[in-house]
Amino acid sequence: MTGAVHQASLAVRRMGIETQQEYVVYMHRDCHVCRAEGFEAQARVQLHLNARSIIATLNVVDPPLLELGVAGLSNSAWRALKPLHGDRITVSHAPTLDSMSQVRAKIYGHRLDAPALDSIIHDVAAGRYPGTHIAAFLSACAGGRMDLQETIDLTRAMVAAGDRLDWGHAPIADKHCVGGLPGNRTTPIVVSIIAAAGLTIPKTSSRAITSPAGTADVMETMTPVSLGIEQMRRVVQREGGCLVWGGALALSPADDMLIRVERPLDLDSDAQLVASVLSKKIAAGATHSVIDVPVGPTAKVRSVEDYQRLKELLEQVAQACGLNLQVVRTVGTQPVGRGIGPSLEALDVLAVLQGAAHAPVDLGVRAVALAGQLLEFCGHSGPGTGEAIAQRLLASGAAWAKFQAICEAQGGLREPTLSRLREPVLAQRDGLVHAIDSRRLARVAKLAGAPRAPAAGIKLHVRLGDRVEAGMPLFTLHAEAPGELAYALEYLAAHPVIDVGEPR
User: Fold this and answer.
1) Nearest-CA neighbor of 14 among 106, 103, 84?
2) For a tag site, which of 3, 116, 204, 355 has the least CB within 10 Å?
3) Is 268 known to be catalytic?
4) pLDDT digit string, tens, across residues 185-234
5) Which residues form a coiled coil (predicted)?
6) Domain interval for residue 322
7) Do the Cβ atoms of 213 and 254 come closer than 8 Å?
8) Any idea what the CATH number is for the domain that residue 32 is in?
């Protein structure tokens, strides 16, 4: 028996290949384990090391990349198995994935009940679904193919698949934006105001999915955000709030797996959006959440009808899951602030918190309005008084002091870095700014390198209604690599993002 185990075992080597959350194992084409077990490229296999076990996708490689008798592990697989020097792994066929039959049923138009969704999400969270399977599930549920009860059951399944925090008191405040509006980085300001008011607001945020920056990306230019649950608890107990990356926590872990596949597919269905947002609120222990939904012609939510449908779905699912929710419609006709991209948005946030003369007024006004609504919603202030209280906390410097304290508790506050390369984009004619395409601006910022290069992005110089003259800069591109700067400029040549014309 010992010999048989030895024959199926392999030495391990870290390949240094980043596959994000998907586990990948690399094996020699003539590996005795591959031949004995009949493994082929892209097979799903189970890797065992001591008490740890993961499901991985097999990639077959030719010499000299790997020698016989050695299994190469992707970075994510290495982190999960934690091999020590001299350790050997055993490899076997992955167990049958019974929940895929439910995904196939959904593809053919059948409903998914609560047990089916529990089974699918449990397997996703356990890492048993490769990207292809997750893509199939997301596609089967997109385009309005999930009804209300399915969305409720999906939300509950995502909460049940991970940890759930309990802060021992109420209210626990939360604020979230559904996204789609570049530069709308109100969350760090709102968290600072709410915590300065004495409420508890343990804010977990995502990295960018389809945008040039997520709140976690922006905060990471100023302070560590990859905190564990116990670190997060200490920060919240000390300062009343935090601003951390949710992906470093085991709160709704299946959502992070789904987001990884949503990003390249650019899928963001209402049901998945609602389940993603609300599962993380519930898992983080929130009792009262204000959701910002910008509405505009080039925002994620483009019409009042789309807003109303999303609002009703959010409210119905939240009520079924026991979360107090207030959905707020905000104007989404143009970007907020001046910066688009992690560092540039962080500089806007700092300017507002510090009360700087050059701070973008619209970002501060939005943040104060949302903080005021959250103060009232949590019962901390009377009807109609929350905004004035929020404004006082911001203007007095209390919110700035709280932001600094939160960052120090998370590991220190640092200044965001600026880009090496900058290229102004000039107006081609005199006139008024009639329209700003938020979607195209976001794409340009991503082509320039954001959010992977934190200093990359766009700094806006104009707003709707501004009068400009030919040769004036409309915005400045920021990049870290010449190739990315050229790529963004090439896109702009064929896709104008700011409409300048005669007065209407």
Assistant:
1) 84
2) 3
3) yes
4) 999 999 999 999 999 999 999 888 778 999 999 999 999 999 999 999 99
5) none
6) 173-251+258-410
7) no
8) 2.40.40.20
